[in-house]
Amino acid sequence: MRRVMIVGCPGAGKSMAARRLAEITGLPVIHLDRHYWLPGWVRPDPQAWRARVEELASQPRWIMDGNYGSTFAPRLSAADTLLHLDFSTFVCASRVLRRTLGGLGGRRGGELGDGCLERLDWPFFRFVLDYRRTHRNRDLEAMSGFAGNLLRFESPRQLESFLAALAARG
């Protein structure tokens, strides 16, 4: 496990899983949200974004969390392990609400770029509510050709068990 990609609906806990896995493995964490969003929640140029992800994915060791479907291919081709947090809409939506309301005006533990403070974003919340219906199949299709170790977790409890077992192995 040298290059780990963590994907799933917003609110599934990708960043938390990345931090926990980093504590266990010593691998560096790359939060894609931090690299994607420019100050004031401005989206980057698509070509510049893809080049940045390719640069990040070329590093020898990492844990990279975030979906960003347009950059699945370069990350999947570089990763040796893929964690798919395939949690229910209820779990993800409730976590997004809790995270948003509890962190308004903050930087979400350093996961966000400079000038991007936590905010209420109804279109984003709608995306979370619609993810399983509108984006999950696209993501599953992209993952279907992954040649490395694919680990799918359907509940936070499954993920926690995996991380605890990994930590116990030392």
TrEMBL record:
Molecular function (Gene Ontology), one example: kinase activity
Entry-linked SUPFAM superfamilies: P-loop containing nucleoside triphosphate hydrolases
Superkingdom of origin: Bacteria
Alphabetically ordered keywords of this record: Kinase, Transferase
Transmembrane stretches, start-end: none
Matching PANTHER family: TOXIN, YALI0E33011P
Name used for this protein in its record: Adenylate kinase
Organism of derivation: Devosia geojensis
